[in-house]
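Progress narrative, Year 2. Work on Protein-export membrane protein SecG from Winogradskyella eximia advanced from sequence curation to structure prediction during this period.
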Amino acid sequence: MSAFTIFLVLIVIVAFLLVVVIMVQNPKGGGLSSSFGGGGTQQMGGVQKTGDFLDKSTWFLATALIVLILASNLTIGSGGSAESKALDTDEPTEMPITAPATTNDAATTNGTATE
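Result:
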């Protein structure tokens, strides 16, 4: 398993978690934070507010996603097992130019033969 494949799996997992955390949040102050915390008060036991946890986890997951994407970009060239024919430099890239077929333009004018 290549490093790029590992990064790809991690990117998919982090992206899924980021979607879940964003969907749990409510932009109007409701959502998960109001159902547990009572709308802005701290929870029992001195635990942070749920809204703060969701906000921090969103930023952490977004940062982790960006870092994983940049790190996977560095490993793309090192995998090298799937090579593209478009990148081959051994074969010529230009097609040979052939002259178009010519007709006897002097002998015909507007479809009629001249002598």
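DSSP finds three helices and two strands in the chain. The two ends are 77 Å apart (CA to CA).
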